[in-house]
Amino acid sequence: MAIHNPDLAKEVLSNKFGHFEKVKFPPLSRLLAAGLAEHEGEKWVKHRRILNPAFHLEKLKELSLMLPALSTSCEELVNRWTRSLGSDGTYELDVFPEFQRLTGDVISRTAFGSNYLEGARVFQLQSEQVERIAGAWKIGIPGYLSLPTKNNRKMHQNNSEIESILHGLIGKRMQAMQEGENTKEDLLSLMLESNMRTSDDNGQFISGMTIKEVTLILYEVLWLYSPAVAFFRKTYKEIKIGGITYPADVLIELPLLLMNHDPDIWEGDVHEFKPERFTNGISQASKNPGAFLPFSWGPRICIAQQFALLEAKMAFCMILQCLEFELAPSYTHAVNNTRLMRPMHGAQIKLRAI
């Protein structure tokens, strides 16, 4: 059942009573890592409580590596593009892989500090896993991922390498923290510190996450750059939504892409590039103040939305100080929404120096 009414979508996403559960694909999750978004019940509550402090906007602004990491990565990007300008002062390129590389570099530097090259390797492997899993998903044969195909063996090798790198990074950082070193320079340290100082609502100490679980959380951070085109839930028990009663085990799809292009919600200019629609804030941009849900809604809203927005704003401000751009003649508008939305034929633009 597809629900594209924003009010009903928020009703589903805001439910705190366990009537809806996230749709899971265990064989795929094992190879792509099930982070915070995959947890349910008390396990989700504990992990969310532990991680929330590390992602508060004030904490991110205090993060000593955030600005230098972004500055370094953006300078390298701008310098590379500037050197590529032709004799006419322009340069045409596909910016989709460029921005993927930029985001991976920023996240790696910010999350892993001086070990960012190891973090970059994890990011690279995760990106490869997404492509390989998307290919395996299309085959749709039960038990296919258990077959010793070349692609399946490579996915398992990638997963083992990712776990090995992250276990090593976490182990070294925890040892440094236990020895009293000042390690509050990156996101990993903030997360581990939050994990070590966790208490419940009554002030009583509760156990943190295992090393394995903290590995899993870092995978979640690596997905910051990838916007979903829809959210999926499944009814856990009989429930009424919008006057209609649904039995248990009904798959509910909340199609964000459809809602964002509904003229009844966003007026008649839904297909136009019109940033000014948000001049008076998100709640005033459409007929429904709750129609904009890029980071989900309710108790399971994306924990890293502040990180993602801060990174995006800073990156574009730095790039636009040196370069301007427009769509290239070779650009073809087509969207590939296999799991994540991305340009099907790339995002070709023409750059020129300011």
From TrEMBL:
Keywords from the UniProt entry: Heme, Iron, Membrane, Metal-binding, Monooxygenase, Oxidoreductase, Transmembrane, Transmembrane helix
Residues annotated for heme binding in this entry: C302
Primary localisation category: membrane
Record-level GO cellular component terms: membrane
UniProt-recorded Gene Ontology molecular function terms: heme binding; iron ion binding; monooxygenase activity; oxidoreductase activity, acting on paired donors, with incorporation or reduction of molecular oxygen
Entry similarity comment: Belongs to the cytochrome P450 family.
Protein's name according to its UniProt entry: Cytochrome P450
Organism of derivation: Triticum aestivum (Wheat)
Source lineage: Eukaryota, Viridiplantae, Streptophyta, Embryophyta, Tracheophyta
